[in-house]
Amino acid sequence: MFPRLRTAALAALSALVTVLALAVGIPQAQAASSLPCDIYAAAGTPCVAAHSLARALYSSYNGSLYQVQRASDSATKDIGLLAAGGYANAAAQDSFCAGTTCIITKIYDQSSRHNDLTVEGAGGAGAADVGAPADALPVTVGGHQVYGLEISAGMGYRDNSTSGVATNGGAEGMYMVTSGTHVNGSCCFDYGNAETNNKDTGNGHMDAINFGTECWFSPCYGQGPWVQADLENGLFQSNAGYSTNSSNTGTGALPFVTALLKNNGQDHFALKWGNAQSGGLTTTYSGSEPTNASGYSPMHQEGAIVLGTGGDNSNGSIGSFFEGVMTSGIPTDAADNSVQANIVSVGYGGATGSTGTLTPGSEISLKATTSCCTSDYIRHQNNTAVVSAITSSSSALDKNDATWIVRRGLADASCVSFESRNYPGDFLRHYNYQLLRQPMTGTTQFRQDATFCPTTGKSGTGTSFASYNYPTKFIRHYDYNVYIASDGGSNTWDSATSWTDDVSWVVSAPWAP
Length: 513
Fold this sequence. Notes:
signal, Alpha-L-arabinofuranosidase B, ConA-like_dom_sf, ten-stranded antiparallel sheet, mainly beta, six-stranded antiparallel sheet
C-alpha cells in the first residue's frame, strides 16, 4: 500500500474505533490518533491555520489553545490541553477566572505558522471589537467539559499578518464546527481568508466560510442557516450568487454543524456541510467561481484570517465556533470525509456523565410538585420557558427541550445556572420576571438574570430556586408559564395561592438520553 493511502486508511480505522468506543461508553482520554490536520497533511494539503478552544487538531500538539484575561486585575492565562492531542484543560480556566469574569483575548494557531487570532480592531464597517466571554459556551466534547467561542454583535478576532495563507488566486480549503442554534441575519459570521487592512478592497479579496440566515442574493430556499462563501461583496451559494439548489434549505437548528469551503482560486469553489454529531457531508454547490460580477476568477485573496466578522469588520452577526482549520491547496473529498468522521467521533454535545443532581455538569429535568401538575416539567418552547407534560412517549424534541445542564452560577459560583441541552450556550434567564431561553451575552445583567440559588423546597418537598438578583422571588410555574415570583405581590403570578408548591421542584434524571 502506498504511504499516503496507508495513512488515510489508518486514520479512517482510528476514527471508527473511537466512534465504537463512544457508542459503548468507553471513556476517551484523548481524541483519535489521527486528527484533522494529520489527515489533511497526509493528503498533501497541510493546515496553515488550526484554531480550537475545545481540542487539539494535531495528534502531537501539546501547546496552548487560547488565552483568557480576567476582569479583576487584567491578568492573562494561556489555556492548554489535558494531554498531547487531547482536550482543553477547562478546569484551569475555571480556577483562574473564579470570583470574576474572563474574556478570550487570543486563539492560538496550532500549526507551525503561528497564525494566532487576537481581538479585531476597527474596520471600514465597524468599531474595534471586544473579546467574547470565556464562559459563555460550555460544551461536552469527547466526554470532557470544555468551552467554545460564542460571538455576539461587536465581537470578532483577526490576524492581518499571516504566514502560508493563500493569496492572489491561491488554492485553499477550510472548515469550521459551528452551531445552527445561535445565528442571525446580520453581516457577517465568517471564518477564513480576508483583507489585511480591515476594509472592503473589492470583489474576490475574501475567501471565507459564512454561516447565518442572511440571504444576500435571492432566492434562498428554506429558513437557513446556510453555509455560504463570503467572497467579498456577496454571500454566495453558487456561481450565480443565489441558490441554484432548491434542496439546500439550510441546516436548521442543529446544535453542531460542520461547514466547509474549498476554492482553487481560479475557476472553481465548493460548499459542503454536515451534522457534526453524526453522518457525512453534503455538497450543496460545486462549480465555477461567481459569474454574476467580475473580480472572482481569478480570486484576489489577501491572506488575513478573520473569525466572527466580515472582511471590513462588519460585526453585527452572532455565531458559535468550536474548531476550524485552513489548508494549503484543495483537500480531496476523501480527506474531507475522514475529517468529518473524526469530528463526529469526538462526540460534540455528548452526555456529561452526570445526571440528576445540582452538581455543575449534571444533566437534569425539573419536575413540578403541585398536585395538579406532577407530570409537568420546565421546558423551552419558542424561546420561552413553560411547563408541560413529558412522558416516555413524548417526542425526542420535547425530551430535549425539557433537559438542562447544570452550570456554575454565571453571577455566583455558589449558585447555579441552567444551560439548554439542545441549544448550546443558551441559558434559562428571567426578563420582566418571565423565564426565557436566551444565548449568554456576557453582560452583568444577563449573568445575574440567569443565576439561581437552590434552597430547600418551600413546601418541604424538593428544591426551590431563588433569583440571584431578586432573592425574594423564586422560579414558579403559573398558568403553564414560568416566572420568578414572590409570595404575594402586585403581579398575577405572585398569587399566594399554592405558591409554596408552585416554587418547589424535583430535580430529576434528564429526559434526554
